[in-house]
Amino acid sequence: MTRNTDLNDTLFDRAKQVIPGGVNSPVRAFKAVGGTPRFIKRAQGAYFWDANDQRFIDYIGSWGPMILGHGHPAVVAAVQQAVTEGFSFGAPTEREIELAEEILKQVPSMEMLRLVSSGTEAGMSAIRLARGATGRSKILKFEGCYHGHADALLVKAGSGLATFGNPTSAGVPPEVVQHTLVLEYNNVQQLEEAFALHGKDMACLMIEPIAGNMNFVRASVPFMQRCRELCSEYGALLVFDEVMTGFRVALGSAQSIYAQAIPGFKPDITVLGKVIGGGMPLAAFGGPRAIMEQMAPLGPVYQAGTLSGNPVATACGLATLREISKPGFFDALSSKTRSLVDGLKAAAAAEGVPFSADCQGGMFGFFLMPELPQNYATVMKTDNARFNALFHGLLDRGVYIAPALYEAGFVSAAHSEQDIADTVTIAREVFRTLSK
Ligand SMILES: *Cc1c(COP(=O)(O)O)cnc(C)c1O
Question: What is the pTM of this model?
Answer without folding.
Answer: 0.97
